[in-house]
Amino acid sequence: MKEKTHVEDIDRSIYDFRYDDKDFYKVEEGLTEEIVLQISKEKNDPEWMKELRLKSLKIYNKMKVPDWGPSIDGLDMDHIVTYVRPNTERMHTSWDDVPDDIKDTFERLGIPEAERKSLAGVGAQYDSELVYHNIKDEVAKQGVVYTDIESALRGEYGDMIREKFMTLIPPTDHKFAALHGAVWSGGSFVYVPKGVHLEIPLQSYFRLNAKGAGQFEHTLIIVEDDAYLHFIEGCSAPKYNVANLHAGAVELFIGKNSTLRYSTIENWSKNMYNLNTKRAIVDEGGKIEWISGSFGSHTSYLYPMSILNGKGARSEFTGVTFAGNGQNLDTGTKIVHNAPDTFSYVNTRSISKDGGINTFRSEVAISPKAKGSKSAVSCESLMVDDISRSDTIPAMDVRTADADVGHEARIGRISDETIFYLMSRGMSEEEAKALIVRGFADNVSKELPLEYAVEMNNLITLEMKGSIG
Questions:
Q1: Is residue 353 part of a domain?
Q2: Is residue 399 domain-resident?
Q3: Closest Cα partner for 305 from 350, 353, 362?
Q4: Which residues span the domain enclosing 260?
Q5: Scanning 189, 276, 349, 449, which has the fewest C-beta atoms within 10 Å of its C-beta?
Q6: Residues 101 and 227 in one domain
Q7: How far apart are CA 282 and CA 35, in angstroms?
Q8: Under a CB-based contact definition with an 8 Å cutoff, are residues 151 and 176 in contact?
Q9: Which residue has the higher pLDDT, 426 or 8?
């Protein structure tokens, strides 16, 4: 009898379709030095990158699995394939040249349409490889570089990447940062020159198709002084009854008086362990804006971090997390105030349904030299029923008396009276609950471009119908 590895979900065809990967190249399951060297050879790494991979593997083998968050006992690295690619030419700049099954995947997810309508450039990753990357001519003429990181590494931007790569997220940071350093593959490189304000966004979309595999893309963005960029990240995967892993890394370098808005709509399937790491360092007068919508994965550890290194640097984090049946999502953010007159603001919403577990963690660290700094953290949690759970774990580490720090948290449930009122106005119970939840999450959706706000609201509606999971 053929083993059943694909689990169908009702009404989730936009994300849950998949293609046979029999024509794909894969390394063996597990994590050994031989596998790491095999990936390095596939990537045609420069010598320094190969050495970084091997060093990261040694660090990984020495470090312990985190024991302070949700259990990841179901993740067995001995059964994870760390590199999968289509047996085709590696990357394309013409959409017509992308293989039909991969093209169909991204067409069904709306990527080419989004590119045509509202994006300055698009990168599309399928399993371990970027399969498509393109940037509009008028954007390239401004000096903006948007390409796959591996081409940039082997080309004229190799020295720039070597100077920055895994400096914000060193392999010693935690076990899965070390794993990433050993087996990373794919991802985007963005460089915005001084004084360039990109009016329309760039986007990368990550699709993990293979069962029992991991995706380890690396995104590196450098925004020079007096510049602006909005970068959008999307991701999804079909659901299997074996564990998949996402352990990517995002490193953001923001120059003086520059702004980077980094938006994410994450809809991994519920067999995914999402152990992603994101970090930004902000120079004088610069600003990082995180916009985060987390709807998928079985278990998440996700805490985008801002390091405010220059006077007057700012960080704003706006997020919504939706945990349904079988999900344990541990999310939040960390801000380090390292300079005077820095500012941070955190505004999050978490929603729990059908026994889902949400944990919000935040840490605000204000160093002795960050005099005159201000930080405000506001987190609100909504439980749709009496079997779900929501926890808030804030931490404040303030090392100067000359700082203004505040934290506010609220946890509650949808009231029966509100549901009854909306039903009396002609709504079904499902419609009433979905309306309340969409309103609760409105602070995030209004920050997203229109197409992505619609996608987020559709995801909420699907969740409220019990159609995912």
A1: no
A2: no
A3: 362
A4: 13-302
A5: 449
A6: yes
A7: 36
A8: no
A9: 426
Give CA angle at 26 (25, 28), nearest 5°: 150
- The predicted-structure confidence for 119-165, as pLDDT tens digits, reads as follows 666 666 777 676 666 777 888 899 999 988 998 998 889 999 999 99
What pLDDT was estimated at residue 97?
Answer: 63
Q: What is the 3-state secondary structure (H, E, C) of the chain?
A: CCCCCECCCCCCHHHHCCCCCCCEEECCECCCHHHHHHHHHHHCCCHHHHHHHHHHHHHHHHCCCCCCCCCCCCCCHHHCECCEEECCCCCECCHHHCCHHHHHHHHHCCHHHHHHHHCCEEEEEECCEEEEEEECHHHHCCCCEEEEHHHHHHCCCHHHHHHHCCCCCCCCCCHHHHHHHHHCCCCEEEEECCCCECCCCEEEEEECCCCCEEECCEEEEEECCCCEEEEEEEEECCCECCCEEECCEEEEEECCCCEEEEEEEEECCCCEEECCEEEEEECCCCEEEEEEEECCCCEEEECCEEEECCCCCEEEEEEEEEECCCCEEEEEEEEEECCCCCEEEEEEEEEECCCCEEEEEEEEEECCCCCCEEEEEEEEEEECCCCCEEEEEEEEEECCCCEEEEEEEEEEECCHHHHHHHHHCCCCHHHHHHHHHHHHCHHHHCCCCHHHHHHHHHHHHHHHCCCCC
Assess whether pLDDT exceeds 90 at residue 436. Answer: no
Q: Please give the torsion angle defined by the CA atoms of residues 446, 449, 454 and 458, in that order, rounded to the nearest 10 degrees.
A: -90
Residues 45 and 188 placed together within one structural domain of the fold: yes
CA 136 to chain centre: 24
Domain-ending residue, one of 272, 302, 332: 302
Evaluate whether residue 352 is within a structural domain. Answer: no
- How far apart, in Å, are the Cα atoms of 357 and each of 221, 266, 350, 363, 407? 33, 17, 10, 20, 22
Number of domains in the chain: 2
- Give CA separation, 246 vs 108, 109, 120, 206, 207, in Å: 22, 19, 26, 10, 11
Token pair recorded at residue 148: 């796959």
Q: Are residues 234 and 108 in the same domain?
A: yes
Same domain, 294 and 433: no
Last residue of a domain, one of 248, 270, 302: 302
317 assigned to some structural domain? no
